[in-house]
Amino acid sequence: MRKKYIAGNWKMNLNLADAKDLASGLDAEIKNLDGIDNVDIAVCPPFVYLQRIIGTLADSPIKAGAQNVYFEANGAFTGEVSVEMLKDISCPMTLIGHSERRHVMGETDELINKKVHASLAGGIEVILCIGELLEEREGDQTEAVCERQLREGLANVTADQMANITIAYEPVWAIGTGKTATSDQAQEVHAFCRKVLADIYDDSVAQATRIQYGGSVKPANAEELMSNPDVDGVLVGGASLKVSDFTGIIKAGLACG
Ligand code: PGA
C-alpha cells in the first residue's frame, strides 16, 4: 500500500519569524500524533528561508523542500538555484513544474524535464506537478494535457528513478480558488494518470508511484479526497500556512492511511 504523502507549498508567503513559528508549531502538533510515521510530510518554504527551516525541522519527521530548482550546475543564471546548492544545505526534495511556474513564469515541459533529470541525478526527490487549465477541462482536454505533461516531464526517466518521484495532480482552476475538484473528478484523473504511468513503465511502477491531489485542499475536504484509492496524499497551498489547518489535513491523511 502506498504511504500517504502530505506536502505544503508555502509559495511566496510569510516572513522569517512566521515561517519559523509555522515550522516549529507544526512539528510540536504532529510529533505526538499516533502513527505519525505512517504518513510522509513535507513543507516547501521560500528559498530565502529554506536553510533556516531545514534547521528548525532537523529533528522532525517533517522534511523541508524547495519550490523550484534550475537544471544547470552553476554559472551565469541570475536568480536561479542549482541542485548542488540544494544539496549543500541538505535539502532533500523539490517541487518541479508547479502550475504557477508553468503559467506565470512560462516553464515548458522540456525545461521541466531537464529540472527533473538534474534533481534525480543529484539525489533530490521530486514532486512533479501537472494539471489542466479551466479552458482545457471545459474543452475536454484534461486527459490529453495530463498525459502530455507526464510523458514529457518524465521523458527518459528510468523505472528505477521513479522511486524518487511523486506526481501531484493539480487542476489549475482549483488552485487558490476555493473550487476543489470533486472527489470523483480527482479519482478519475488519478486513475488515468496511473494508467499512463503503466503505459510508460509497467504496472509495478504505476502501482508504486504516489499521486497527490492539489487545489483548495482544506481540513474539511482532505479526508474525502484521500479516501479515494488512487489519491495518495495532497499538495496544499493556502491551508499549509496555518498550523491548525495543515495539522487537520495531516490527521485526515492518517485516518486514510
Ligand atoms: P491551494 O494551492 O491549496 O492554495 O489551492 C495548491 C498548490 O498550488 O499547490
Structure description:
It is built from eleven helices and eight strands. The protein is α/β, with parallel strands linked by helices and 257 residues long. It has one domain (15-256): Alpha-Beta Barrel (TIM Barrel), CATH 3.20.20. β1 (4-9), α1 (16-31) and β2 (39-44) form a beta-alpha-beta unit. The protein starts with a strand and ends with a helix. The mean pLDDT is 97. Bound molecules: 2-phosphoglycolic acid. 2-phosphoglycolic acid binds at residues 9, 170, 175-176, 214-217, 235-239.
Short description:
This protein has 257 residues and is of the alpha/beta class. 44% of the residues lie in helices and 15% in strands.
- Trace the largest sheet across and list its strands: 3-2-1-8-7-6-5-4
Low-confidence stretches: none
Report the C-alpha radius of gyration, rounded. Answer: 17 Å
Number of domains: 1
